[in-house]
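User: structure tokens for histidine kinase, please.
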Amino acid sequence: MSKPEEIQAKLLLAIQSNPPNLDDIVSLSTELAKLDPTNQRFYIDAKTLIHLGRDSIKDHSTALLELVKNSYDADATKVDIEIFSETKDMIRVADNGFGMKPEELKNSWLRIGYSGKRVSTKSKLGRRKTGEKGIGRISTDRLGSKLELRTKSKDEKLIGLKVNWDDFDVEGKSLSDIHVQIFEPKEINLPLTDGKPSATGTEILIEEQRQSWTKTNIENLFQELSALTPPFEDVQDFHISLVNDVYPLPSEEINSNYLDAAEIKIEAYYPGTGTEIIYTYWDKYNDKEVIEKIEWSNLLTRTGIDTTNLIENKIRSGSATIKLYFFLRESASVKDFEFNLTKLREFLDNNAGIKIYRDRIVVKPYGFPSSQFGYDWLGLADRKAKDPAGISRSANYSVTPNQLVGAVFIARDSNVELADSAAREGLVESEAFYDLKSLVMGTINMLESYRTRLIPKINEAKRKSRSKESRTERIIKALNSIEKDLYSINLEIQNNSDVASHIKERVQKNVNDLSGTTDKVEKTITELLNWNRTLSGLATIGISSAVFGHETEGSITQLKGSVMAAKLALSRKIPKVDDAIVEIEKAVKSSKRVAAWGAYALTRVQREKRNKKNVNIAKIIQSVVNELEPAYKAASISINTELKDIYTYTFQMDIETVLINLLTNAYTAATLKSGKRLIEVRLIEEDLKEPKKLIENGYSLIVSDSGPGVSKEFEHRLFEPLFSTKVNPTQGSKSIGTGLGLTVVNSIVNDLNGNISFDKDPVLKGARFKIWLPKERKQRN
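Assistant: Done. Predicted tokens:
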């Protein structure tokens, strides 16, 4: 047989073998093609893979994101990422997706340029698949030279492959000459699903890393992973965990509540047909949304839009939704929120910019602060620098990029003209891209125009803010008014010859006591305000101040009412001195309640107890109860204690904060029922046990009250931040609680490895909260 016939015979055998020998088929087909005198073929050099993978991907974070996107396409709900550069040389990416069958691994994954995503564009979960070029898998070469892939699909055996990418980095070597090892792994480590290892998924292990990871690399990767799916939409079906040995990650996740602090929110929607864009606005100065429509041609005339590459009657980018949030970065933005200005600015510094999301997956580098060129892809900084006019010059007013958090939402199927660039980062800057960019720029101009229309309302809000009287100012003003009334009452009684001298002395003493109390209260409030500014970071001070503020205003209202009643009793033709004395004694009682709360609050802020040390828990509890007792007695509430001496190594501030919050809740509950008002505090030794097994030595703090207990309908929300059942009985459903007390307690208990439970006290019939905490000893060096 001639050589072509020999190759054909071998090729036929390779095809007929079970399973077909793919390596021989490729090799023999190539050899046969070379013998064709008239029809030749392209031959692929092995280094082509190096150019497609290692050389064409910008950085290692982009390469890793490619693998995460593949997990998203595989319907994974969890992806575990591990990066170890310091302790060992390994990168691991594992997901709980549907995995690959053996034939898919051999016939699809190893086929460069092939992607079933072009045929099947939607996953079983309805996700629009993100990768269609069939080369994303080569991104592993950018991360490291050695790859091991393990995968398990439903009802199929575990299968894997091993690749040494350095084998392809050889001049003149054909791609078909390099073998990839297929093997059957003994195990696969997949993310947990419902507490158990997933039955399906893919695990990728990469060794001999191309580039070491730095602190900045990890921070940037964390930002990119956090924004991979849009935080605006609260995506719940895709979670990523990142563990590394380079730099500890931020513990705080992106908080969507920050978006509520925006001064203006705007949403633009273009349906993909016609030339009309629909705008919806919301701002903090109005109670309703504003909807406008504008023609594309009119939008193009707005300042700042480059119309060089645009067509007035056509939007070539396809349908799009744009959401923008505009922030002031001022203290007024956070006055109604639980976070402070520093936290808001941190959020903006990390998330400012306008990102592009395609099928719910972010398109780098647009809107990422870590990206030198992609962050301000709209040129807003240069635009502002050329004309830095403020809002008062409305014709030239423009926003700065760090004031905006936003997103552009597009889709592959409805934005077919917006294609990926070859480097897997960014979009090809085509006419469609210019249209999209102009649509976003036009939306920013619409936002700026809308804000200038709000100038009268903005100025009015600032004026009201400056003129609005603070709670402290209201209390001090009321106290000064009471002082004047007291002086006139005392003068009238002392000048009344019909009043016996012993009664005059009694009134004089009460008035002097009351006058001295008001001086102390004014001083207390002023000092509290200063301390609260200094210690605003301590949640327990904020909660104590809220309770103190409510009690102070309520008691001063009672105080003022009693003084006025005394004044009226004495102003009659026949003065009712006895009635006046009764009212003055009521006023003295109210003033003592105010003074008691003030003294307690000042005691809290004057002591620093955040050092961990050996302490007697019973002593701490009794000290707090002693400080609170005068304020509780003023409200006819008794506190009974039953405390066992228990010593442990802990933070005194934590124990006090837990107890104060529980007692504060018990105080409010006890005032809601008539009859005897009682709170019980118990401290007992209690070991946490399981059947036939001692888990841990510890103790329990139990606080019970005689209030109405916890309603069934609220039990599931009790530890929810900002949820409060405390209401002012004189003002309908107006809340007097911060909604943070039990959240703080729960957080501290979790930090101390304890647990919290609640039920109905069998004796007092109110709520009973039980805190169990482990005993701890100081470790010797």
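User: Anything notable?

Assistant: The first strand starts at residue 78 and ends at 84.
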